[in-house]
Amino acid sequence: MIEIKNVSKAYRTDTIETLALQKMNLSVPSGEFLSIMGPSGCGKSTLLNIMGLIDEPSEGTVTLAGQQITDYNGTRIARFRNEQLGFIFQSFHLINDLTVVDNVELPLLYRKVGSKERRRLATEALAHVGLSNRSTHFPNQLSGGQKQRVAIARAIVGRPNIILADEPTGNLDSRMGDEIMDILLKLNEDLGTTIVMVTHDERMAKKTHRLVRLSDGERVS
Ligand SMILES: Nc1ncnc2c1ncn2[C@@H]1O[C@H](COP(=O)(O)OP(=O)(O)OP(=O)(O)O)[C@@H](O)[C@H]1O
């Protein structure tokens, strides 16, 4: 369960203050696949980053898995993020100098899982996204859809309860986008992983359980 209560976020630069979110309230029950849509600049990524503990709200509270996060210190937040959350980004965010399987192992390395177990779990995650035959490739030897599948394998390798995806199909053609969406839907169905996905694509949003629309930092529907 994700609970966002009265969350506002203001970004201040020397000359201007932007209110990216205004008194946002949103509950995402465990096991839900939720999509978030809205025009450019309306606060979608800000909301996702606050849910993912990448960014802090200026006001309001974030509760994840029954724990109110806002009072945590940095180390505890980092641990919680590593253990409970998986992230998928539009531009994949893979490390080009590491092989596919090494990229997938990364979250486990931070968790200090032993090397044999890391390899076993990463191999399993790659099989889950249908990429067993690319484990020793480097990211620049893969197609966009394959890169995103590696990113999904990395997001799921630590069995997170929640996956946060920021336009995961944004850089892909519609066929590859459909493939990625099918993997996310299956993940949600088979493992009960809660997924929150920002998208600009109505077609993708329609496949999820619920759609929340934002405008100017507020929920409109
Ligand atoms: N680090 C920052 N410093 C200052 N302003 C910011 C910062 N990050 C975001 N903003 C502003 O906050 C508002 C919301 O940004 P956000 O990235 O959440 O929008 P978005 O809905 O995800 O947009 P897009 O669909 O274009 O990715 C925008 O007006 C943006 O300019």
Automatic annotation (TrEMBL):
Q: Which GO terms describe its cellular component?
A: membrane protein complex
Q: Which is one Pfam family of this protein?
A: ABC_tran
Q: Keywords assigned by UniProt?
A: ATP-binding, Nucleotide-binding, Translocase, Transport
> By what name is this protein known?
Putative ABC transport system ATP-binding protein
Q: Which CDD domains match?
A: ABC_MJ0796_LolCDE_FtsE
A GO MF annotation of the entry reads:
transmembrane transporter activity
What family does the entry list? Belongs to the ABC transporter superfamily. Macrolide exporter (TC 3.A.1.122) family.
Domain called ABC transporter: residue spans: 2-220
